[in-house]
């Protein structure tokens, strides 16, 4: 199986992968595209933020799969980007997500954030936002349609 944005390995209810790549240009996300610098995650992760793992950026309790607060979600800034390890909640929703990932029906990631430092550059008819640093991270999310899909990863 192939995944254009993220890498998953599944061991029981454990998932790991790449939630956000660095040095990759996003799709058009509302009149602009963005690229994340490799250092952008360092400071925010040092602050030990509360980040939840969810499905499709949902804020419904049944879609929460884990959190940094409980220790079921670990986030790591690497040369590839924001990587994660997740012990998926052993709920019916967790089991459903594991099955959908195994079948390769759902195989992409996204994340929600607030930018602390960025710059904007015109590129032809587009604007490119370069993210230098994040203020906060609020979630990583298993999604169907991510902003970043340039990375080719083997499952």
Q: Could you give a short description of this structure?
A:
By secondary structure, the chain is mainly β. Helices cover 10% and strands 46% of the residues.
Structure description:
It is a single chain. With 155 residues, the protein is mainly β. It has one domain. Helix content is 10%, strand content 46%. It has two helices and eleven strands, in the order E-E-E-E-H-E-E-E-E-H-E-E-E. The strands form three sheets. Strands 4, 5, 6, 9 and 10 form a five-stranded mixed sheet that branches. A four-stranded antiparallel sheet has the order 2-3-8-7, with no helix packed on it. The longest helix has 11 residues, at 92-102. The radius of gyration is 15 Å and the shape is globular. Mean pLDDT is 87; it is low at 151-155.
Uncertain runs are: 151-155
End-to-end distance: 6 Å
Tell me the β content.
over 45%
Global structural class: mainly beta
> What proportion of the residues is helical, as a percent range?
10-25%
Q: What Rg do the Cα atoms give?
A: 15 Å
What key attributes describe this structure?
single chain, mainly beta, 11 strands
List the helices and strands and how they pair.
Layout: E1 2-3, E2 9-11, E3 14-21, E4 33-36, H1 42-46, E5 52-55, E6 66-67, E7 73-77, E8 81-87, H2 92-102, E9 108-123, E10 126-143, E11 153-154
Parallel strand pairs: 4-10, 5-10
Antiparallel strand pairs: 1-11, 2-3, 3-8, 5-6, 7-8, 9-10
């Amino acid at each position: 199986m192939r995944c254009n944005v993220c890498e998953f390995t599944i061991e029981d209810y454990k998932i790991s992968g790449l939630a956000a790549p660095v040095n990759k240009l996003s799709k058009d996300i509302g009149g602009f595209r963005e690229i994340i610098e490799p250092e952008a995650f360092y400071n925010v992760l040092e602050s030990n933020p509360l980040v939840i793992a969810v499905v499709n950026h949902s804020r419904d309790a049944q879609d929460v799969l884990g959190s940094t607060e409980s220790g079921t979600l670990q986030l790591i800034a690497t040369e590839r980007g924001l990587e994660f390890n997740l012990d998926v909640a052993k709920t019916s929703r967790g089991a459903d997500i594991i099955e959908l990932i195994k079948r390769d029906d759902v195989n992409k990631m996204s994340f929600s954030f607030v930018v602390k430092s960025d710059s904007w550059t015109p590129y032809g008819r587009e604007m490119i936002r370069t993210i230098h640093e994040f203020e906060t991270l609020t979630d990583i999310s298993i999604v169907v349609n991510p902003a970043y899909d340039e990375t080719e990863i083997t499952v």
